[in-house]
UniProtKB/TrEMBL annotation, chain A:
One of its GO terms (biological process) is thiamine diphosphate biosynthetic process. It comes from Pseudoalteromonas rubra. The gene is thiG. Its EC number is 2.8.1.10. Homotetramer. Forms heterodimers with either ThiH or ThiS. PANTHER family: THIAZOLE SYNTHASE (PTHR34266:SF2). HAMAP family: ThiG (MF_00443). This is Thiazole synthase. The keyword Coiled coil does not apply.
Automatic annotation (TrEMBL), chain B:
It comes from the Bacteria. InterPro entries: Beta-grasp_dom_sf, Mopterin_synth/thiamin_S_b, Thi_S, ThiS/MoaD-like. Pfam families: ThiS. This is Sulfur carrier protein ThiS. Signal peptide: none annotated. It comes from Pseudoalteromonas rubra.
Amino acid sequence: MQTDKPFTVYGEQFDSRLLIGSALYPSPEVMQQSLLASRAQIVTVSLRRQNSVSAGDDFWQLIKDTGLRVLPNTAGCHSVKEVVTLAQMCREVFATDWIKLELIGDEYNLQPDPIALLEATEILIKQGFKVLPYCTDDLVVCQRLADLGCEVLMPWGAPIGTGKGLLNPYNLQTIRERLPDHTLIVDAGLGLPSHAVQALELGYDAVLLNSAIAGAGCPVTMASAFHHAVVAGRAAYVAQAMPEKEVAAPSTPTMGMPFWHQN
Amino acid sequence: MNISYNGQALTLSQPHSLLEVIEAQGAQAPYAVALNGQFVPRSGLAEQQLQEGDSIELLSPIQGG
């Protein structure tokens, strides 16, 4: 029986390997039910101007009622200055040093800016933040982020909100092999529970997603499906898959074949 | 004095601290404040005096992915 390594985020241990977003749900009630059905223990949140329609204490109260650990993000930021200011504001409001660092470099596919991301990460870590960078699946960028002190890395599966799954499993697998001791989370681009299974089978410690659940016809049921997917994927990784073969090999013993197959 | 509050133009008849303006605008906790793109901790809101052209951003929790 193989034993599993616990899923940890900056020293904190979690049972669930699914991190879930709180955006885009058809209603606050569906959001709350989906969060619970996902059995996630970490939920992403953000900050916006208080005069925006959906901001405010009602949303925050719903999140607090779930009892989940919050992971604030810096979504929408395009510069190091913006991201540092927003992270500082998040730390005060949400009372956590955790920050999901999002720094967009391209408006078309919302691809993270790897150069600015490194600069922002260095500043934030010096200010005591525990940075969870949303990054591309570039091995060297991930290594540099790790060198700066990131214990957790979150390479994308595909561009945000596309639901395309893991576009480059080879890159993701290489990052896993080269950073064996870091907590790795596939963030963004997942659409189906099978995508989550694949990420966990590759050895990723967890997945973070939002649209795949919030945008489903029945978000609550899909949240439950993703819960089962990460459990299945992790179990498969721990169990160690059989080696692939190029030719067929019988699974039923050939000894003792009945007479009509004998010469 | 003309300032900007969450993107809206605001005219103040006399000098005010950041905290006074925020409270006058009816800000509801929880929130965090940035002045001209720089974070101002809650403990510094009362002593921060506003100047012509200042830009205030007051942010609150919202859904995130």
